[in-house]
Known about the structure:
alpha+beta
Amino acid sequence: MAKDKKFVESITDMEVDFPQWYTDVVIKAELVDYSSVKGCMIIRPYGYAIWELFQKQMDDMFKATGHENVYMPVFIPESLLQKEKDHVEGFAPEVAWVTHGGDQELTERLCVRPTSETLFCDHYKNIIHSYRDLPKLYNQWCNVVRWEKTTRPFLRTTEFLWQEGHTAHATQEESEAETIRMLNVYADFCENILSIPVIKGQKTEKERFAGAKATYTIESLMHDGKALQSGTSHNFGDGFARAFGIQYTDKNNELQYVHQTSWGATTRLIGAIIMVHGDNRGLVLPPKIAPIQVIIVPIAMQKGGVLEKANELKDRLSDFRVKVDDSDKTPGWKFSEYEMKGVPIRLEVGPKDIENNQVVLVRRDTGDKKLVSMDNLEDEVASLLDEIQHNLFVKATERLNAKTSVATDMTEFQDALDDNPGFVKAMWCGDQACEDEIKELTGATSRCIPFEEEHISDTCVCCGKKAKHMVYWAKAY
Amino acid sequence: MAKDKKFVESITDMEVDFPQWYTDVVIKAELVDYSSVKGCMIIRPYGYAIWELFQKQMDDMFKATGHENVYMPVFIPESLLQKEKDHVEGFAPEVAWVTHGGDQELTERLCVRPTSETLFCDHYKNIIHSYRDLPKLYNQWCNVVRWEKTTRPFLRTTEFLWQEGHTAHATQEESEAETIRMLNVYADFCENILSIPVIKGQKTEKERFAGAKATYTIESLMHDGKALQSGTSHNFGDGFARAFGIQYTDKNNELQYVHQTSWGATTRLIGAIIMVHGDNRGLVLPPKIAPIQVIIVPIAMQKGGVLEKANELKDRLSDFRVKVDDSDKTPGWKFSEYEMKGVPIRLEVGPKDIENNQVVLVRRDTGDKKLVSMDNLEDEVASLLDEIQHNLFVKATERLNAKTSVATDMTEFQDALDDNPGFVKAMWCGDQACEDEIKELTGATSRCIPFEEEHISDTCVCCGKKAKHMVYWAKAY
C-alpha cells in the first residue's frame, strides 16, 4: 500500500501550492505532455478524449441552433489582417509570421491565424449578395496561435484548439440577438455539461475584443478564488462589414452593410474543469465529459469467475463509458490511478460480492461507498451518474457564492480579496481610470457587468462619484 | 425551364475538358471557395459536412482497431525536423517557415508541420520505457501545410486536412502487421463507405515515403483514367527510433529500439469521390457520405396540404439525413440544384401523389424514377440507398477494369495509354532506371506492386531484362 499511496501523495496539496497542484494533476492524470516546441502542449489520449466529448456535445448545440461548420485557411496575409484597424492593433503583437515557403522568401508575410474574423469577412464578401443569403451562421473547429510569453497547459498556450463562430445578419438587432443567444449556449454548456456555474455579463470597453462593439462573457471561479473567462461572444455591428465592404441588397433593392458576430470557446475550459472540480487526490470529472464513467476493478482477480463477472457487468453497462482494468497492478494502485483521472464511479467486484449478488460503487466526488444489488445495476449507475453531475454543480455554485464578496469602498475591496479571494461585487462610475486604478491597487480586473445588476451602493467603489454599473471584479487567469 | 437548365449547362462536359468540369463541380456544388491565401481553400458547409461524415466513419474504424486520438503541436523546430536524415531531405523543400513571433525574430525557425513523425518520436521517447508501454496506437486529425506550386481544390493544396496515425511496437513483425492492417482499413473505407474500388500494393523504392522502409498504398482510378493515391501506410522499422533514441526495456531487461508505422488519408479523397462518381450533371454522392440522403421537393407547394405532407414524410424518414426544400424556387430549379449537389434520392410529392397515397423517388446515380406507396416509404428509401451505394461501387469497378490494360513492351504500353487511358499492368525488372525511363517516355509512374501480382510476361516492359514484379502504372494526380 505504500506504493499505492505514493501515486497520490506525489501531487502537491492545492492549499500548499495551487499552481503546482494544477501542474501535477495535468501531468499525473496524463492529460498533457510538454513538447520540444516552446509554449505548445501535447494533448495525450485521456486529455483528447475529454476534448472529443466537449466538441461533440457543444457541436450538437451549435447545430441545434442552425449553425454549419466550415474550414478556413490557417494563414492570413498581412494585408488582410490589416483591413480592420482595431483588430490588427489587438492581434499583430502576438502572431507568428511565416516568411519563407521552402527556400523562397515570400513577397508578403502570412500570419498563422490568431482568430479568423478577417478570413470570414473576405469569404462573406464573396458569397453574400442579397437579403436571401442572410443570415450566415458559420462555425469552425480549428487550431489557433498566439505568441505568449508565459504559458501553462490549457490555460495559456501558444497554440490552442477552439471553435470560432462567425455569423452575418441583416440588422443590428439580429446580430445582437445572436450574440446573446450564443452566450446563453455557452452558459448552458458550462452549467449542464461541465457542472460549472457561470456569471453572464458584458465586458467593459477596456476588456472588449479588438474590433467589437460589444463583448459578452461567461466568467467562472476556480478553487483558488481566481476567475476564468470561459467563453466570449462579440457583436461587431457593421464595423468589419464597412472595412471589408460586405454589402447585400435588401428587399427594397438598396445596398446595406451586414452586421456580424463572433464567439469562441477553447481547450482552456479543460483547465476550468480541473480547477473547479479537482481535489487533492487529482481530477474530478463531471460524468457527461468523462471518457471513462465507470471503472470496474476486479478484486482477487485470480479467483475463478471474477474477471468473467467483471466483463459481464461491463457488457451490461454498455449504455455508459465503462472500462475493466484487468492489468496486473494491485487494486489499491488502480483505486489511486482512477481517482487521479477523475473517473466518476469505481465499481469493485470480488468473490464475496459475486456470492452475495452485489457490487460496491464508490463515488469519486464524495468518496461514498454503496453496496448495490447486481439486479438493478444499470439503474443504480444511471442515477448515481446523474447525482454526481448535479452534486458537482451544486458544490461549485456554493463555493462561487461563498467566495463572492461585496465592497463599497477600496478598503472593503482589498479586505475581501485578502480574506476571501474570489469575486468582489462593487459599483463603478464607468471610467476606465477607475478600472486601471483598481487593477493597479489590487490586481483585480473587471470581469463583467452582469446581466442582473444588484444595487450595492450609490457611488463608485474607487472614485466615489455617481455609480453607473455593478461590476464583478476578480483576479483572473 | 430555360433558367433551370442553365444551372446545369453552366458546367463544362467532362469529355470536353475534365479539369474544367472538376473545377465547375467543386464551385457549383458549393464544396469550396477560393481564398485570398494562395493555394489554400475554404471548405464550405456542404463540403465540410462531407468531411465530417468521412471523419466520423473513419474514426470509428480506427477506434474499433484500438487506436486513440491525440493532438501534437502545429510547429516543428528546425533541429527536430533534421533528426532523421531522409525525412528532412524529403520535406524541407516544401515547408512553411515561421521566423518571427510578434515583432521578435525567433532564435530557431519553426516549420508548420508537413507531417508529424518527428513530433510523435519526440513524445514517444518521453513516454515509452518498458515493453508494458507498447504498443502505442495513436492517431491525430489535424491540418498540415506543404508548399505547393500548382494547387487544385482537394487534390493538391498548400494546407489540407488529414489524419495521421503514428504507432510504436516492440518488433518489426508487429509494425509490419500494423502497416498492412491499416492499409486494409483504408481499402475497406474506400470500398464500403466511398464506393471507390482500389488496388492495394507496395510502392517501389523510388515512390516510398521519406524515411520509410516500406510504403503501402491504395490506388484508385478517376473518370479521366488518371490514378489517385488514396491512402498510404508506412513501416519505418527502427529507423526513426534509432535517430530519436526511442528504446524500451524488454522482458529480459534488455534495451530494444521500437518499430514504428505511420499512415494517412486526407481531404484529397473528396476529390476522388468527385472524379470517380461525378457526371455531367454534377456531383454524385454515395449515400454513406452524403450530407443530404433524401431531398424532398414539394410539387405545387402552394396547394393545401402539400407542405404539411412533405414535412410529415421528413419526420417519418428521421433515420436518414433528409431535407425538405420549401424555398420559393421552382421545382425544376431545385431538381438541378440537388443533382449538382449529388443528393442520392429526390422525393417528389404533390397533390396527385397525396391523392394516390404515393410519392416519386428519383435516383441520382441512374436517373430512374419510381412510384412507391407511402405505406412502406421507410423500407423503400432504405433499400434504395443501399442499392445506390452498391451500384456506384459496381459501376466504378467496371470502369476500373475496363480502363486497365496489359502491356508486354513499350509500344503496347504507349498504345494502351493513348487508346484507353487508365492503369497499365506490366512487368518490371526492379531497376529505378526503367521507372525513370517509363515516366520520361509516357508520363506514367509506377503506382504499386499489387499484393496479388499476375504474370504478364517474363521480361521487363522497358529494358527486356528478367522481370521481378508486376506493376500497376498510370498517369496520376
